[in-house]
Amino acid sequence: MNLALAGLACVVVAGAVVAVSAREARAALLGLLVALLAAALVADPLPGPLPIAARLASAFLACRLIAIAIRDLDEPTSGTRLGWPVEAIAAAAAAVIGFGTHGLGAPGEGAAEAQAAGFAVGVLAASPIVSSRDVFRLGMGAILLLLGGLLVRQGLSGTPSELEQLVTSGLVVGLGGAVGVVIAAARAAVGGLAVTDQPVRGVMPREGRHLKP
Amino acid sequence: MTILPFLVICFAAGAASLLAGRNERLSTAIGILGLAAAAIAAGTIGADDKLTIGGADLIGSAYLRLFVLLGSIVALLLALLGLATTSHRYAAGVLLGGIGAAGLALALPDARVAVIAATAGGLLGILVTIVPPASARGVVVAGRELRALAIAGVLAILAAAWIARPLEELAAEPAVFGLAYLGFATAVAIRFGAIPFHFWAARLADAAPEITLPMLMAWSPGAFAVVALAWADQSVAPLVLPLSIERALIVAVGVVSLILGSLAAWIQDDLEHVVGYTIIADAGIAILGLAALSPTAWEPARTWIIVFVMVRSAFAAWAVAVRGAFGTRRIAALGGWVVRAPVLALSFGLIFVAAVSWPGLVAWQARLALIDLNFDGPFVVLIMAGALMQVVVFGRLLYVGLSPPSEAVGGGLSERPVWPAALPRRPMIGRSGRERALERTSHAVSGAVDVAWVVPEALRVNRTPVAAVLVLILSGLSLGVASGGLGVPEAARAVPGQELGPGPSQSESPPSEPPATATPPIETESPSVSAPPASGASPLAPESPLASEAPGSSPSSSLLSPSVSPST
After folding, report:
1. How far is Cα A38 from Cα B450, in angstroms, rounded to an integer?
2. What is the ipTM of this complex?
């Protein structure tokens, strides 16, 4: 095991845990930024300086686009219902599985740490992408899901080419822009982050529950 | 180097158009100029062009040239149609970026990079899904779109990466290849909004501007499907693996989309929903091309994809023009539209012929070939009949159009051209020949200025006939493509990086026959009876690219390189 890569993988997972767990949107965004920045470096061999620069710049730009959309946001995100310890434990379990199954049936060309981080980030993304009505969390989930896929890809097929890194940078910026647009539209439409186009059935309002016999 | 100008124009003009989004006129002008330049640049792409950037190749092909050329022209016509009807401030930029991303994905022979480009292009659609003023419904649709794009993207990225490396020590060959194949096919189905992954796509028709629907639901997913087809033909099809369950699942998605998409289009009362569901139905045929898992499917699948995206673009444009003319998308309120809008009726007829087609036409043959590759006997007739169910959809629209005029149609805009103001008359007062000659010259210049001064207003009051003419051009183009014009079959048959040849195998056999393959394709009699390898034989054919690789070398270099065609 490469300790430097393992450390970077831990940083990626920690950032992702913060991104899906924090109720303060800025803190969650900071977690996403950390995950995106560190993910660019979890590769063996390390990419060249230009691809790394492109990935870092795209991470900053994507988070900046989301930051613009959450400017002056005074309400917290819905956060995780499980709590950050549960998310962290689930991510750790997924990371162990990812590390242990490196290559998924055949020897992997990349770093096992990348696949471990990819599995962990993918597990963390599952809950917000499947069930969240909060568009901020949905956006976090979408970005983390693709980030997890890219990390597993790095673990399976090795360090991407420079052109692939450039295209990946475009994808990250596009994701940030798309999430920013959706968040801004949600705030303009309903004044908050939780949006639904249909009434929630089968759930009593919290304050009315005691009225039911 | 001929690919680069097209990409630069698309991405630079697209970015400029999006950045100028606050000024809608400027944004649209940049977008339309960019689309015109992109169409010119697309026409110059060389079929044997190769460009290496950052350690990866961009490879030109006749199919790439045709796809992006038609895509640019369609996008240009749609953007102009948006000026004549309704549009979105980001529409032109999204059309540019979408066709640029599609071109980049098709130019990349490495599926691992191509799927990332295709996913990034799809994200642009979210910009136009939310129409100002933002509504909760629009946000929900955009959220679903984002979710679908992310899931489809990650499935495709993982599938492409999983088997693009040395696999000599692969533990479970059929399972790994089957899962990767199923994952990529599922990603394509999600991108197309195929049933049962259609919830986001069905709502997209409500939220997104009509002129962008073809790009969001047909062109971008179409490019994604072409990448998937190339990947499957190069990485999975050459191996003789028992993938009957995986193929049956994919065939089921294709058939269900085909049948239920046509049924849903038939019962819908909203024109845009009809357009959306017919796209889903046609996408079912494209998915059958992926399910065939045979080199024989290469040409018909690629032909069908380009035909159906063209025909559905024309249908979407027709729906936009009808709404612009009569102010409603409700079919029940469109009584008498045929009589009121004869040019649109002519376009409708062309679209009908291109969509349904007849035996001998390229569109018909491609559809029949894809169904025939997956089914046998009476099932071919049944599925073909299901594919022709859209006759009922068109028949319903025609029936409504021939019924007595409704209030909306009666009060709608006519297609008859009008001139907004009478031109002033200038009597001749000169007496000598020289005076009269000078006066005539002066009158001619003044008259030209008068006409030029009124042209903007004339365009405004003649929006409906202008839109009708644009739709007629697009419909004619779609019929030309459906009948095999513009070299569609040749382009679909060609392998990227090689000169136009007789087929993906580059063999001497005629295109209608199965290419001479070193590895026998999987039996295609029925989705449930895919032939497993012969008893006792290794599931990995000895002549397959994987088997021929020297130990330790990466099969990705051969599997994904254009020199290894789907049938080599």
Report:
1. 65
2. 0.91
Location of structure tokens 């430097």: A4
Cα atoms in the Cβ-side hemisphere of radius 13 Å centred on A70: 28
Nearest residue of chain A to residue B111 (CA atoms): A164
Task: Kindly tell me the number of DSSP H helices and DSSP E strands found in chain A.
Answer: 7, 0
Min Cα–Cα distance to chain A from B392, Å: 32
Contacts of A171 in chain B (CB under 8 A): 116-117, 119-120, 123, 153
Q: Is the peptide bond before A45 cis (omega within 30 degrees of 0)?
A: yes
Query: What confidence score (pLDDT) does residue B531 get?
Result: 36
Q: At what angle do helices B173-192 and B220-235 cross, to 10 degrees?
A: 170
Give the whole-angstrom CA distance, residue B229 versus residue B250: 13
- Tell me which residue has tokens 């992109």: B38
- pTM for this entry: 0.85
Question: Is B169 within 8 Å of A109 when comparing Cβ atoms?
Answer: no
Distance from the first to the final alpha carbon of chain B: 28
Helix, strand, or coil here: B542?
A: coil
Cα–Cα dist B115/B179, whole Å: 17
Test mutation, B123, B241, B554, chain A, max A CBs within 10 A: B123
Angle subtended by helix axes A49-69 and A162-190, to nearest 10: 0
Query: For B395-412, how does the pLDDT look when each residue is reduced to its tens digit (9 = 90+)?
Result: 999 999 999 988 888 888
The per-residue pLDDT for range A64-88, each reduced to its tens digit, is 999 999 988 888 888 788 888 999 9
Q: What would the pLDDT profile of A95-131 be if each residue is shown by its tens digit?
A: 999 999 888 888 888 889 999 999 999 999 998 998 7
Q: How many helices (H) and strands (E) does chain B have?
A: 25, 2
Instruction: Estimate the share of chain B in helix, then strand, then coil, as percent rounded to the nearest 5.
Output: 70, 0, 30
B56 SS3 class: strand
Question: Which residues of chain B are within 8 Å of residue A190 when distances are taken between CB atoms?
Answer: 136, 139
CA dist A112 → A6, A16, A109, B39 (Å):
9, 18, 9, 45
What are the residues whose beta carbons fall under 8 Å from the beta carbon of B477, sequence distance 6 or more? B70, B73, B74, B310, B314
